[in-house]
Amino acid sequence: MEAHALREQGWTISAIARHLGHDRKTVRAYLEGRRVPEARVRREPTLTEPFLEYCRLRLAEDPHLWASTLFDELAGLGFAGSYPSLTAAIRTHGLRPHCEPCAASKGRDTAVITHPAGEETQWDWVELPNPPTGWGLGREAHLLVGSLAHSGRWRAVLAEAEDFPHLIEALDRVTRKLGGLTRRWRFDRMATVCSPSSGTVSAAFAQAAKHYAVAVDLCPPRHGNRKGVVEKANHSAAQRWWRTLPDDATVAGAQQSLDELCERLDGRVRRRDGERTTVGELAAGEGLRAAPAAAFPAELAVVRTVSGQALVSFRGNRYSVPPGMPGAQVVVRHRLGADQLRIVTATGATVAVHRRAPNGAGATVRDGGHVRALEARVLQAFTDSPPCRRKTRRPAGDASQAEAARLRGTPATGAAERVVIDMAAYAALVPAAARATSTNAGETW
Question: pLDDT tens, 340-350?
Answer without folding.
Answer: 999 999 888 88
